[in-house]
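Entry, Tuesday afternoon. Goal for today is a structural model of the target with guanosine-5'-diphosphate-alpha-D-mannose bound, before we commit to ordering more compound. Inputs were pasted exactly as handed over by J.K., no edits. I checked the ligand SMILES twice against the vendor sheet because last time a stereocentre got dropped in transcription.
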Amino acid sequence: MNKRVKILKTEILSDAYYTLKKVSFSYRRSDGKVEMVSREVFERGNGAALLLYHEVKNTVILTKQFRVPAYLNGHESGFLIEVCAGMIDEGNPEETIKREAMEETGYQVSNVRKVFEAYSSPGAVTEKMHFFVASYEEHMKMEDGGGKDDEQEDIELLEVSIDEAMGMVYAGEIQDVKTILLLQHYALKLAGSPSPKW
Ligand SMILES: Nc1nc2c(ncn2[C@@H]2O[C@H](COP(=O)(O)OP(=O)(O)O[C@H]3O[C@H](CO)[C@@H](O)[C@H](O)[C@@H]3O)[C@@H](O)[C@H]2O)c(=O)[nH]1
Ligand SMILES: [Mg+2]
């Protein structure tokens, strides 16, 4: 509860699939002055993302799929390389990401480890992402993956070395923020670095 903020009005501008709202509120500034503010807020639910890494081969499993918002905003092909991720609709973040791992990559992972939570675009979108890592081995591959046809998902899978993946970040070939975050987490905490204090 924030005593400096009072939500006064919430209008729904669109609720076709997700919900776009216009929120009007009074806000007491740090200098004490109270002003009226209006902001549009996109409600898209919350999400979970998972980096699948192989402890012996030092490889990661990534997905590649067409993302129309990125395409509209200058990405040449619109095919983005990402970690496995999905929206949390049923169940908790951990259950969701295990289900998404199976649907998108075909790997059945039991031990996922939560690394952090973060708002993906807090000035505009309510979405909070839950970030996980899990190690994979060949015997965990149960299905082809590739996403759900009935949800019009068409996901290609990539298995690349962690060095190659980091190179792709700096070459601009990986441009998805949740993926960059998890790869950097791997590089900092999991790639045989001396134990960090944080
Ligand atoms: N009809 C319709 N269906 C939609 C729409 N938007 C999404 N969907 C359906 O919802 C599914 C969402 O698939 P998920 O795997 O759960 O989510 P995602 O698209 O991979 O999104 C993940 O990454 C996003 C970008 O980082 C995150 O924003 C999101 O929370 C999640 O982590 C899509 O395949 C599609 O079937 C829409 O506007 N209209
Ligand atoms: Mg997905």
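The longest helix spans residues 177-190.
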